[in-house]
Amino acid sequence: MRRKSLLLIVVMFALTSLLTINAQEKKSLIGDYLSISGWMNIQYDYERQLQNDGVTLDEINTFNVRRARLDFKGNISKNVEFRVHGDLAGTPKLVDGFVKIKLQKYFNIQVGQFKIPFTFENPQSPLTLEGIEYAQVISKLSGYSDMSGVKTYSGGRDVGVMIYGNFFSFERDGKEIPILKYKLGVFNGNGMNNKDANFAKDIAGSIEVCPRVKGLMFAASYYGGNYYLNSDERNANRDRFTVGGKYENGRLTVRSEYIIGTTEMAESGEIYTLNSDGFYVAGGYWFNMKNQKIRPVARYDFLRRDIENPEMNSPYYMVGIDWWPYSNLRLLVNYTVKDKPGYDNFGNLFQAQLSVKF
C-alpha cells in the first residue's frame, strides 16, 4: 500500500511538472483548457474527556495532515467542463470526478462523483467554514459519518447524475442574481468511491430562494433512499429533510439549519426506526487589517441521535478565530465544549488548523 501511495504521488507530481512545462510553452492552450490548484490542511487536536468514575481520562493529543488536495479543472468546450480532485493524505483517493454539460441557465447536467445537493453546509469547502469540523447534524445526517454507519468516509459525496439550474432573476450592481436555484440528483447511496450495494437508487434535491434582500437566502432539501443493512441482509430506509437560511454581506455571516431524519436500524435481529434531528447556528464577522483578514467565529451545535431518548442529546459550544495573514495562508483555531451523551462531565476539544492554497 505504501509503495502504491508513493507511486501515485510521484506520478501526480510528474504530471503537474509536465503540465507546468507545457504551460510555459503553450500558455494559450493550457490557460484556456486546464487549471491546476491545490490545498493542504495541517491540524493539531487535543481532546480531554473525564469519564463518569471521576478518575479515568479519555485524551487525544496529535498532529495530522488532514487533507492534501490536488485539483484539476478544465473546459473541453464552452458547454462542457470537467473536474478531477484527489486527496493524497493517508490512502490516496478520488474526491471529485465529474463532467458538467451546460445547456441552459435553467437546465444543466452533472455526472460523476461530487457532493450531494443536501443542506447549506455540506457543499461548502472546509476552507470557508467557521469550524474545523462540520456540525454534528451535518456529519450524522448528511453522509460524513452517517447515522446508518455505511458511510465512514464519504465527505458528503456520492456517485450519480444530477440536473441543476435557476429560474427568474433580477439585476443588482450590474450582476444577474437568480431568485430560484434547484438541484435534483439520483445517486448510488453508498458513499464516495463505492459502487451501489443494492439495486435501488437514492434521490437528493435542493431548492434555494434568494429574495430581494442582499445577502439573504433560504433553502430546503431532501434526501431519500435506502442502504444495504449487512447485519440483516436486507435494504433499510434512510430519509432526511432540512430547512435553513443564511445571511452574508461581505463581513457578517450568519447561517442556521434544521435537519430531521429517519433511519432503519437492526438490533438483535429486530428492525427498528431511529428518528434523529438537530440544528446549528453559526456565524462570524470579518475585520480587515491592511492585507490581512481576521474574524471571530462561533457555533451552537445540537444533535438528538434519538428523538425519543433525551439521554442521547448532544449540544456542542464552539468559539474560535479565523485568520488569513496572506491570501493563500489560513490559521483557524477552535475551542469546543462538548456535552456528550453518557458523560456527567463536559469534554474539551482544542483544534488548530493551518491551511495553504497553491
The count of domains is: 1
Low-confidence stretches: 1-29
Oligomer: single chain
Mean pLDDT across residues: 88
- Helical stretch tally: 3
Radius of gyration: 22 Å
Order of helices and strands: HHEEEEEHEEEEEEEEEEEE
Estimate the helix proportion, in percent. 10-25%
So what's the overall shape? globular
**Straight-line N-to-C gap:** 27 Å
Helical/strand content category:
mainly beta
CATH architecture: Beta Barrel
Tell me the major beta sheet: 16 strands, antiparallel, barrel
Q: Class in CATH?
A: Mainly Beta
Any idea what the CATH superfamily is called?
A: Porin
Strand content: over 45%
Total E-strand runs? 17
Provide structural commentary.
This protein has 358 residues and is mainly beta. The protein has a single domain, classed as Beta Barrel (Porin). Helix content is 10%, strand content 60%. A 16-stranded antiparallel beta barrel has the order 1-2-3-4-5-6-7-8-9-10-11-12-14-15-16-17. The two termini are 27 Å apart. 28% of the residues are buried. Residues 1-29 have low confidence and may be disordered.
Task: Give structural attributes.
358 residues, disordered N terminus, Porin, mainly beta
Describe how the helices and strands are arranged.
Layout: H1 2-25, H2 27-33, E1 34-50, E2 57-77, E3 80-87, E4 93-104, E5 107-115, H3 136-141, E6 157-172, E7 175-187, E8 202-209, E9 216-229, E10 234-248, E11 252-267, E12 270-285, E13 287-289, E14 292-304, E15 313-326, E16 329-338, E17 347-357
Antiparallel strand pairs: 1-2, 1-17, 2-3, 3-4, 4-5, 5-6, 6-7, 7-8, 8-9, 9-10, 10-11, 11-12, 12-14, 13-14, 14-15, 15-16, 16-17
